[in-house]
Inverse folding.
């Protein structure tokens, strides 16, 4: 099962992480493999900055997900907010356009969830 | 046509119910069958409690939908908010994880709508 | 690539238009064709009225998209808000039910994005 979570609002990080963690727990309990990608655009890229992520608590939770979850930040959103890709959490991938990533993944069979 | 509505925010119940009712009306007018499921997680499970549903008006509207619409509450969300499954409206199903239900339904061909 | 954007909240017009414009730019840069439809229901149909669109700035941005993007307004939403179809921006299509349009497009292979 392949699943894409879309976050574009800083206030939705909390519920998104709850959702991703619940899905991983379910995978462990039922021995199913979930391939999970989180695509971040809009203002929500702010919480992917190392300093901001430590302040608001996304840092520890994203770090705990580790390699089980791919996290992608939209390059346009970073540029709009003058955020340097170098300031992001280690392991976060930068994609040219978040919405194109989302469309492509759905065409590959990913389910789409917008918490 | 199979359609899944996702509700995770108490403030989105109103528009979600408007959407579901509009879809059922359209089905009646055009003699098409819509298989509709509403997956509820996050704070929106609160409005599935019998007492709360009567207070805010979801009770009458969900009851009127009857068997035409399957309503599922996420077990994790219920646990997080200390809501007992027994306190829910009659007919509401409890699923182990709302996000897994959403992903599975999409893999079965359901369209996803997040009002 | 076929993509449907869903807008049902007036406050999400800004980010939706950012997203659509980013997708079109990406298409130009990579010589890919994106077939884009924007389905508007709920309170967000207000910003499709000519006068309101000029006031809030959706007018210029939607006009600039031109024929590259199909914009559909939900007839139910217009009726609920007593908005006449004649008051809408030129080029906006009216569909009987926004949610049915969304479900049908997904069944045709459109990706769904809710900004």
């Amino acid at each position: 099962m392949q699943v894409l979570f879309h976050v574009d609002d800083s206030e939705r990080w909390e519920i998104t992480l709850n959702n991703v963690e619940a899905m991983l727990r379910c995978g462990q309990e039922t021995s199913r493999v979930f391939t999970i990608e989180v695509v971040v655009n809009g203002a929500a890229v702010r919480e992917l900055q190392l300093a901001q992520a430590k302040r608001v608590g996304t840092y520890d939770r994203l770090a705990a997900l580790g390699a089980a979850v791919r996290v992608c930040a939209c390059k346009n959103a970073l540029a709009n907010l003058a955020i340097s890709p170098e300031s992001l959490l280690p392991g976060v991938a930068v994609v040219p356009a978040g919405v194109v990533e989302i469309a492509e993944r759905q065409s590959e069979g990913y389910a789409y969830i917008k918490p």
User: Anything to note?
Assistant: The beta strands of chain A are 2-7, 35-40, 69-74, 93-95, 111-113.
